[in-house]
Amino acid sequence: MSEPEPTDFDPGLATFTEAAEAISAVVHRTPVESSASLSRLTGGQVWLKAENLQRAGSFKIRGAYLRMSRLGTEQRRLGVVAASAGNHAQGVALAARELGISAKVFMPLGAALPKLDATRQYGAEVVQAGGNLTEALEAAHAEAAGTGRVLIHPYDHADIVTGQGTLGLEILQQVPDARTIIVPTGGGGLLAGVAAAAHAVDPDITVVGVQAAGAATYPRSLAEGRPVPWAAVDTMADGIAVGVPGDVPFSVIRRHAIHVRTVGESELSRAVLYVAERAKMVVEPSGAAGVAALLGDPDAFPGPVVVLLSGGNVDPLILLRIVRHGMSASGRYLEMRVRVRDSPGSLAALLQDLAGDGANVLSVEHIRTYAELAVDEVEISVELEAQGPDHCDSVLQMLHDRGYHVVGSRAG
């Protein structure tokens, strides 16, 4: 049977129910966790769907396994090829291992090392090619054409959309009174699947997509009625750093009249930090996009709200930078320069005063070489962690009240 044209694909409840059964032996039913802090913020119930706890660390195993489980005998013999920045790579590699299929995965040159290693450990052959997903996908297409391997596209195939859509069924089984589902969005496979499945159960439920502002392909594409390429993808959220919507998911998303929002890099960082601190879960920037949207506009979503945490695969080194960026975005860093007498005990007194006001000193530097300094003066550069913007103001006011000469400060 030939595959439907992209504009003809219109899955119903039976399609998703069958898919859920087909992947049930391999895919975890991930938990939903109530978020008290987000519920207070919005004034309604907010739930977090923890797909970051899924096998291979993201939702991608759902679509990859469904797609590959439906391959014929000869297709399985030839093997599969895929392209991914990391999550789809791991999903394909794991699915291939479960099904006994050879997998070759092309990943961009800048892919995170933990994602590269995990993909190899699942048994796939990994080739780094191109500087972004689009270029890696071109290499995968060429491999498929030259070898006969089946291309397992990260988002642009009916089976991929259907597999990801099992999340929509799962969410409404776990939170049957949900009124809004917020979904991180790249190429659109996850958003299309969740929207179609959720609307098959409840046509009145609101499904919202969230993209990084540096890869916001959907708002313009939906406005123009066709997939429009994004000229220069630029976001830390590699899981949703996609240059053009897929034809299959785009047709579904447009048919279901789904609204897609955008969030900036600071909002993504803040959301990663927020989930770590409040929900005690590690998510990657793309996985936190829905939380970023909710934090940015808490009154915009009818509750109860389910926010999908789509993935947790993040390089620890990148996570450190993200957390630092998130703390800065939350106004929890304060850098300042303070002039004091160059005498024993001056530094200790400053640090004691800062600690007494609840500030956590991160770094200290003595500066004695400024021409503006008096002979008996020293300038101390201090970087500290505060509890928020108000606390930064309080620390500066405390220093002023105690007679310190603060010659420069920057909060953020």
Automatic annotation (TrEMBL):
Membrane-spanning ranges: none
Checking InterPro entries in the record gives:
ACT_dom, ACT_ThrD-II-like, Ser/Thr_Dehydratase, Thr_deHydtase_catblc, TrpB-like_PALP, TrpB-like_PALP_sf
PROSITE patterns in UniProt: ACT
Task: Give the protein's cofactors.
Answer: pyridoxal 5'-phosphate
Q: Which domain of life is it from?
A: Bacteria
Q: Where is the ACT domain?
A: 335-412
Pfam families per the UniProt record, alphabetical = PALP
Q: What is its EC number?
A: 4.3.1.19
Q: Has the keyword Lyase been applied to this entry? A: yes
Residue runs in coiled coils? none
Per UniProt, the keywords (alphabetical) are: Lyase, Pyridoxal phosphate
Membership in a protein family = Belongs to the serine/threonine dehydratase family.
Protein name as catalogued: threonine ammonia-lyase
Q: Which organism is it from?
A: Georgenia halophila
